[in-house]
Fold:
Amino acid sequence: LFIATPNNTHQSLVKKGLESRTNVFCEKPLTGSFSQSSELFKLADSNGVKLYVDDVFCFRDETKSLIEDTRNTPPKEVQFIWRKYGSFKDTVFNTMSYHDLSIVYALFGHLNYRNLKFIVDRPDIKQFQFEIDGAIVEFIHDRTFEGKDKRVIIDGITYDYSNPKNDAV
Structure:
């Protein structure tokens, strides 16, 4: 069972799949809380099925390129820019930041960051940064922008996600 629905539907749909003893792949946040996610993984274990959670952005050609390009030289500066118009019931973190954090994980192999600093902290605009393995990683997420702009810039090299080469879904 593949689930790529609005975030607030994940928990109940995944639970139904697991209860029917079906392996489940769920895209982006599994649930809105650690306790709900933990409950689902325990249910998968008790029913002898697999529960996979990942972000489809990790399978995009652009992400594969940036990971390959940084394989031998760890990045020093990474900037995630994602601006598009949209009013969502869910937070900017669950609709935008989550995707980019999954790419950070793919780049560095962990999310052990330090010195988190918020530059802009409004409901539909978040700009924040942190350090990870000596690199500065910055996020600019804006749901008020009347257009579409999705880029990752690593040490001055731009990976443009605005017009995808492939759509993993």
User: Anything to note?
Assistant: The chain is about 30% helix and 30% strand. The chain has a mean pLDDT of 89. Residues 92-108 form the longest helix (17 residues). The helical segments are 10-19, 34-46, 61-69, 92-108.
